[in-house]
Structures are given as structure tokens and as C-alpha cells.
């Protein structure tokens, strides 16, 4: 794995007079094992950048490499995006899209099962993560029975379970209290170290911003890099 590398990424929506240059110039580098923050005001291009990173939309120009694979070169797709999303990227979205007819443990165990691991091993791995996220007591519950905070923690477990080389998280701690937000950050840092994962976290959360060693700011479609406080997570 070689983390995430983006050079001169641009994204234009539409054409002609109504065209919007959502990303004008994005340079980013996240090493394996590193957790970085992405911060910017509303309309600055954060969602567009996350969608480009997740190969959900195609950028207009630039170069992007994920986990050692070139995804876009001068705006051209050069790989199988479906396989990429399945094997290389863990998504942690703000709204937890859990599968309503599977209980909590199977929502999390589904991805390793689909990847060919046994049901027993997949559930064991899922329970380990649910324990680390302090929701194991809800393992047999259905998603509709969970609080917002519990759903979010289950969604985080699902994003991490396949140990992808890249994790993209959109406001993962927004609905959580301070203690749980820190627990999530601790787990993301542990994942990053243990599995050499490159993690990007889009956030406004003042509770977690001081924990980043490095932060990318995006303003009007242009990124800049800044040192963060890198405060230890207690
Ligand atoms: P953020 O996530 O930081 O709020 P976005 O990436 O959503 O920013 O939006 C960046 C700019 O691109 C904004 O000006 C927004 O209006 C525009 N934009 C976003 N999505 C589209 C779209 N599908 N079509 C046209 N313009 C869009
Ligand atoms: P959290 O801090 O994780 O969001 P809450 O304090 O909101 O947890 O919820 C405490 C308990 O109440 C949880 O076990 C949760 O399952 C239950 N609960 C909260 N909201 C709902 C809801 N809308 N539907 C069913 N159960 C709920």
C-alpha cells in the first residue's frame, strides 16, 4: 500500500456559462498509517473531493493514486472502479446506511462474508470491532432499534472491517459525545498503524480537530496543508 496521492486534481460540473469549478487545484498526500483531517467551509469542495477519492464521480483532470494503483491520470480512468471501491476503500458516511433486515453483527460481518471468509470468522471479527466501539451489547439488535450514536458506531465498524488500505470518513464523530468521539478517533489511529491504512476524515468537529498532526484546508476548490496540534488521544 502506498496511501493516497493526488496531484493537480480538478473537477468541473456542467459546461459553458453555467459551469462550476468545484475543485480548481487539489494536491494531497496521505501516507500509509497516517490520519489526516480535511476541513473547509460549506461549498468549498469537500464532498466533491471525497466523491472523487471514492471514485463515485470522475474528476476533470489530474492524477490520483490509491494504495499503489493509479486511478485517474489526467482525468482518465485507468482501472476497474467497482473492484477498487470494493477492495481498496472503506467508506464511513455521515448517514449510516445500514441494511434494515440484517442485525447489527451481520451488517458488519457481511463484507468479509462476501469476500469469502467463513461466517464464524466474519462474525468474530465483527464482534471484536463492535466491542472496541462499545456497541457489542447491541449485536443482536436490528438497525431500527438503535440510537443515532449506535448506528454511527456500527457504520464505522462496517467501514473498517475489511481493513481497506484507504478509509474515507465524512463527519464520523458528528452525532457522538466527546468520549465516544475520542474512542472512534483512537480506533481509527489504531487501524491506521496496525494495517498501514491511509485515512482522510472530513470534519467540523472541534472535539477531534486538535488530534490531527496534519490538516488539509480546502477553500474555493483549492487545498493547502497545515500542521495540526497532534494532541494525544487520552
Ligand atoms: P462542500 O462539500 O464543501 O459543501 P461541494 O463539493 O458540495 O462542497 O460543492 C462545491 C461546489 O460545487 C459548490 O459551488 C456546489 O454548488 C457545486 N456543486 C456540487 N455538486 C454539484 C453538481 N452536481 N452540479 C453542479 N454543481 C455542483
Ligand atoms: P447514544 O449516545 O449511543 O446515541 P442514546 O443515549 O441516544 O445513545 O440511547 C440510549 C439507548 O436508547 C440505546 O440503547 C438505544 O438503543 C435506545 N434508543 C435511543 N433512541 C432510540 C430510538 N429512536 N429508537 C429505539 N431505541 C432508541
Automatic annotation (TrEMBL):
Domain (ABC transporter) spans: 4-233
> In the record, what terms sit under GO molecular function?
ATP binding; ATP hydrolysis activity; transmembrane transporter activity
UniProt keyword terms in alphabetical order = ATP-binding, Nucleotide-binding, Transport
Q: Name one Pfam family in it.
A: ABC_tran
A single GO CC term for this protein reads:
plasma membrane
SMART domains in the record:
AAA
**This protein's name:** Putative ABC transport system ATP-binding protein
What is the originating organism of this protein?
Answer: Stakelama sediminis
**Taxonomy of the source species:** Bacteria, Pseudomonadati, Pseudomonadota, Alphaproteobacteria, Sphingomonadales
Amino acid at each position: 500500500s502506498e496511501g493516497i496521492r493526488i496531484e493537480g486534481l480538478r473537477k468541473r460540473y456542467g459546461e459553458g456559462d453555467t459551469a462550476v469549478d468545484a475543485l480548481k487545484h487539489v494536491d494531497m498526500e496521505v501516507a500509509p498509517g497516517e490520519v489526516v483531517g480535511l476541513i473547509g467551509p460549506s461549498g468549498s469542495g469537500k464532498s466533491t473531493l471525497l466523491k472523487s477519492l471514492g471514485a463515485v464521480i470522475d474528476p476533470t483532470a489530474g492524477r490520483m493514486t490509491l494504495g499503489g494503483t493509479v486511478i485517474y491520470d489526467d482525468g482518465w480512468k485507468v482501472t476497474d472502479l467497482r473492484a477498487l471501491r470494493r477492495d481498496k476503500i472503506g467508506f464511513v458516511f455521515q448517514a449510516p446506511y445500514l441494511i434494515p433486515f440484517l442485525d447489527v453483527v451481520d451488517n458488519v460481518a457481511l463484507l468479509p462474508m462476501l469476500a469469502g471468509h467463513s461466517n464464524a470468522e466474519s462474525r468474530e471479527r465483527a464482534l471484536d470491532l463492535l466491542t472496541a466501539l462499545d456497541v457489542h451489547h447491541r449485536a443482536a439488535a436490528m438497525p431500527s432499534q438503535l440510537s443515532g450514536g449506535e448506528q454511527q458506531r456500527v457504520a464505522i465498524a462496517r467501514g473498517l472491517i475489511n481493513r481497506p488500505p484507504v478509509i474515507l470518513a465524512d463527519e464520523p464523530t458528528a452525532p457522538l459525545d466527546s468520549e465516544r468521539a475520542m474512542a472512534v478517533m483512537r480506533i481509527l489511529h489504531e487501524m491506521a498503524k496496525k494495517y498501514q491504512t491511509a485515512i482522510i476524515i472530513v470534519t467540523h468537529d472541534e472535539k477531534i480537530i486538535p488530534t490531527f498532526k496534519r490538516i488539509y484546508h480546502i477553500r474555493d476548490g483549492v487545498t493547502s496543508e497545515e500542521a495540526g496540534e497532534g494532541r494525544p488521544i487520552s
